[in-house]
Design a protein that fits this description.
The protein is built from 2 helices and 5 strands, in the order H-E-E-E-H-E-E. It is an alpha+beta fold.
Length: 110
């Protein structure tokens, strides 16, 4: 659902469920969706869904530790790209029937 929702807004899928294996030099990590905007920006997207906002909602579940894990995975992903384009970290938060696209939800320095 999240992929189709973002594609309907013009983003193009580049990679789905990119994972960094846990090992002696990597703590692991995953990026739900890697997509590209029309201007070439590479967007790393974390998708979170909750049935309701009773526990703070989907967006609130992305802790600083989760952000660091996503940034780590994005760095590993970018090592595979010869010339890294501009990048952004977004969150697609789904609470019941409500969808919120938080563009630039956090950055690599967070």
């Amino acid at each position: 659902m999240a992929l189709r929702w973002l594609q309907a807004r013009g983003l193009v899928l580049v990679h789905r469920n990119f994972r960094v294996a846990r090992g002696p030099y990597a703590r692991g990590g995953e990026i739900d969706l890697v997509m590209r905007e029309g201007d070439g920006t590479l967007v790393f997207i974390e998708v979170r869904a909750r049935a309701s906002r009773s526990q703070g909602g989907a967006a609130a579940s992305i802790t600083p530790a989760k952000q660091r894990s996503i940034v780590l995975a994005a760095r590993h992903y970018l090592m595979r790209v010869p010339v890294p384009p501009p990048c952004r970290f977004d969150v697609l938060a789904v609470d019941g029937d409500d969808v919120a696209w938080l563009q630039g939800a956090f950055d690599a320095a967070s």
